[in-house]
Amino acid sequence: MTATARFTGDAHPYAGGDPYADYRTADFPFTHLVDLADRRLGAGVIAANDEFFAERENLLKPGPAEFDPEHFGHKGKIMDGWETRRRRGVGAAQPHPTDEDHDWALVRLGAPGVVRGIVVDTAHFRGNYPQAVSVEAVSVPGSPSPEELLAPDVKWTTLVPRTAVGGHAANGFAIDVEQRFTHLRVNQHPDGGIARLRVHGEVAPDPAWLAALSVFDLAALENGGQVEDASDRFYSPASNTILPGRSRQMDDGWETRRRRDKGNDWIRYRLPGQSEIRAVEIDTAYLKGNSAGWASLSVRDGGSGDGDGGEWTEILPRTRLQPDTNHRFVLPEAVRATHVRIDIFPDGGISRLRLFGSLTAEGATRLAARHRELGG
């Protein structure tokens, strides 16, 4: 584990104006990866030892934390994050907490996977953030209860050792642990508040589950599909196109800036393994005056997707798209692929891409081998 950016100490007290004007942050090398703790994938904060000032569920809320300097309740200042009460010692002679005292929250990842980076965001917690944080992870099958996760025989792996953090800052940690995890335990030492938690990584699906499904969405994040690259991420991330469910508003899809040249925009996807695609959905929900005008779909079998492993083959020719519409295409025959590319013309956006099919025998074998390598 290597900290890619370090912030320590208090931020200045809020002095009015834009509360993010003095926010401390950095460019982290892993934030382009999917957030495994995204609520839209089914993540949740299933337990915490204390949430006196602010609820644990705030940790996984989408978007940046908000701050209202005049928002107070019966227990004090209401914060958009998870905040615990101040810890105390055992008595007047020992008023301070011990070095071992700390608060914790259990997080169920929305999609099990390999964690590549974590952001512990203390936005607006300027003098009431934790002195240090640590993060542990575990892989437990099924839907374990908090009591089962906290049982003495459950072995947790440290992703972030106890590390000092700063207030009103995005504290980033690059992770180098090649294992598949299902749950995290986030610890704050000794107490305080954290606004948001982001857990960036790669989904590692359960091969047995995909085999039971037989035909499923090969591009979906929860099934191991991922965005390898995209021509433009100006308004929203390309990974939105493979989130669960239909888009609920315009920024829940992928929208590019307006082109002023004769080119076009595109997204390149990697499937969970070699697959056979039988049907396609291209959805432009909530994209009305800014949907893509046309789209085409190409595939390749093998290689990295960016030039190695053979030529791209077009399986859906350039086709007119309608605004705010789900378009369905049944392919004449199953198409074998490991990578898929959608090209939109000339710009605009789509909200979702669905690729229905199944893994080939080779794809299923390789996925199962990878699952074993990650400890699944």
User: What structural class do the secondary elements suggest?
Assistant: mainly beta
Helix proportion of residues, in percent?
under 10%
Mean pLDDT: 94
Binned strand content: 35-45%
The main pleated sheet reads as: 9 strands, antiparallel
Number of strands: 22
- Which stretches of 5+ consecutive residues score pLDDT under 50? none
The separation of the N and C termini measures 21 Å
CA-based shape:
globular
Number of helices: 3
How many whole angstroms does the radius of gyration measure? 23 Å
What is the H-and-E element order? EEEEEEEEHEEEEEHEEEEEEEEEH
How would you describe what is shown here?
With 376 residues, the chain is mainly β. The model has no long low-confidence stretch (mean pLDDT 94). The longest helix is centred in the C-terminal third of the chain and has 13 residues, at 361-373. 41% of the residues are buried. It has helices spanning 146-149, 207-213, 361-373, and strands spanning 2-5, 34-35, 44-48, 72-73, 76-77, 82-83, 103-121, 132-138, 157-164, 170-174, 181-189, 193-194, 196-203, 216-217, 226-230, 254-255, 265-283, 294-300, 313-320, 326-345, 349-350, 352-359. The chain is 6% helix and 39% strand. Strand 4 (72-73) and strand 5 (76-77) form a beta hairpin. The strands form 5 sheets. Strands 1, 2, 3, 7, 8, 9, 10, 11 and 13 form a 9-stranded antiparallel β-sheet that branches. The protein is built from 3 helices and 22 strands.
